[in-house]
Amino acid sequence: MIKVAINGYGTIGKRVADAIGYQKDMEVVGVTKTKPDFEAKLAVNKGYKLYTAIPERLKVFEDAGIKVEGTIEDLIEKVDIVVDCSPNKVGAENKAKYYEKAGVKAIFQGGEKKDVAEVSFNALANYDEAKGKQFVRVVSCNTTGLTRLLYLIRENFGIKKVRATMIRRVVDPKEDKKGLVNGIMPDPVKLPSHHGPDVQTVLDVDITTTAFKIPTTLMHVHSINVELESDAKSDDVVAVLDKEPRIMLVSAEDGFTSTAKVIEFAREYRMRYDLFENVVWKESVSVVDGELYVTQAIHQEAIVVPENIDAIRAMFELADKDESMKITNETLGIC
Ligand code: NAD
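Above: inputs. Below: predicted complex with nicotinamide-adenine-dinucleotide.
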């Protein structure tokens, strides 16, 4: 049984913690918070052992009447691996401060630079490269969505060149300090957006990406165009995507007319309306003169959760790729 710490019980951390709870080969020993807020109280109510992410803040939690078991340093001593879900760039600081010193394995998230880890990870694309590693980075939500789709296209039809546009939710639903109320923001204005180079950390493809932020919080949408190496028809591509559990095909005919409708479906389908899959509009899958067009939506809060579980299995060599993905899919209801 692999013992896991979650450092940073926020949007990603709380989801990874709950997902670990469904696995038989790993368990959450403790989670960390920086502040004694409602999320800290919820973590304790759910039965997680709480530790302070910042050692000096122990007293702040005690003064707020929240039971903590100790500091991140105490927690690290009890675990085999830390899943670092702290904010962008903080993971690299935690690595230098704690993980390297303790010699513990750690997984970082997509907000960290690629050099924080020995390998950037996507379960479909490069599971084996994480085997036995100490430090692994699970790529971001957009990169995970692009990589899954492009891996399947490359393996089945070959890829000459990819052009993709990311239409990004500006912030997550919980944010109240920042956002974009009006307007569409090219981000960045100059090509390329970071997504293309990030995909190349896990998948060898020729890709150029652009990105825009828009005033919505629910999901990202990707408009993807792929020059294929082989002849393929739209139906051939649909058949390949249909077979992969981490891709969910939806249809406008069924009422999936926007991300609002996709999320409305997800509210009934999963806890926290989490969609771990790429949501691909079936009608959008079109091959025209050897070029494939696809539109997909990505639930940014959830898509990297199964990848974190598979990364743990790869790093401890608990299972091979197909076995790990199958267990993760079954336990998280991905089918
Ligand atoms: P978040 O702000 O929701 O959660 C971060 C948590 O870390 C908070 O609970 C915060 O209190 C805590 N924290 C702050 N300082 C810390 C420290 N020094 N040590 C440990 N914990 C600390 O952020 P998030 O959205 O969960 O993002 C976490 C990581 O996941 C980032 O790298 C981000 O880029 C990546 N990611 C986010 C999304 C998304 O859409 N939310 C998707 C994929 C990947």
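The first strand starts at residue 2 and ends at 7.
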